[in-house]
Amino acid sequence: MEVDIKQDPESFTPSGGFADDDIYEDTGELNMPSTEIAQEMWLTRVPKWLWESLATAGEDDEIEIGKLAIWKNARDEKGNPITLTKMFLSQEHKGVQDLPRQYELIKAKTDPDNTYIFTEKDLPGYKPNAYGRLRAGMGGAADGQDQRSGQYRVQKSKSRFRKAIPKHTTLIGAATREYNCIPVPNQEFKNFMEKRTRKAIQGENASTILISGKVDHRELDKAQKAFSGFIRTNQSNKHRQENKAARIAKNDLLDMLQVMFDRYEFWPMKEIKKETKQPEAYLKETLSDIADLVKSGPFASCWRRHPHLNKSNITAVHGKPPDVGGDAEDEVGADEDDGNLEMEDVM
Fold it and tell me: Full-prediction pTM beyond 0.85?
């Protein structure tokens, strides 16, 4: 006789393969079509400036890039039959309104193998943490107090990185062809490239000021006077520069000095400068060839011609020319007045 004994639930052994059920559990993160993919996908390499304009659209926005036109009975330059494919860019999207409109799609030599296109979006129900802040409702962790013990505890630093959100990935199709998108070299494309080159040379901060009509010179004079104080001008140097005499040829200066030494035997530098109107440094350099500087005696600091250069038929006055300013006359008058002075004896 068999006794009915209730089985213990903990001693029940499940069927094989129960531990592997969670591995293949569908979490909704990947969507693979159950049937064979019938949608054909084309890969196209576009210019960088075209991609940058299309990238301004939102990630979830579906925009119409353009329309394709295919000519199957076209001929190339050699007359061989080809399939001509062109794309006409749509002008509805704001980011591509200033771009060339016509493009030619040239098929690559090899087709892509094992290339698939996926799309993804954020799974609903997930929100990232705020940067550097704790989410509300953390059970008093924001103020550093443990509600269970009523004591304060040290909070560990939280990461400032954005928490990753799980993505929902869907397989769209397999890439069967690859094309290169080349702009058609028409007048529209040439104007676009000229504008792009001009912008690269001038930069973003270039400005053009156009003045039409007559120019009011009074306003220009006012502006010039208003900003004249920003620049310091040295008028004295300007007048000093104007007073400087231009150098004459050395041969002409030597002839002039020879004539002067025929008149007087001794010449001070002051009188030589008045006669010749030449710079002092230039005079000293030239005088050293035909004259010597007297360093002592009554004619000190005067120039005297070399003896071998004196002409025998011309006798120069033994002395120096009188001072035009009247200093010589004053000295003579002073000597005459000295004789009329009354002298007194001082003990």
Answer: no
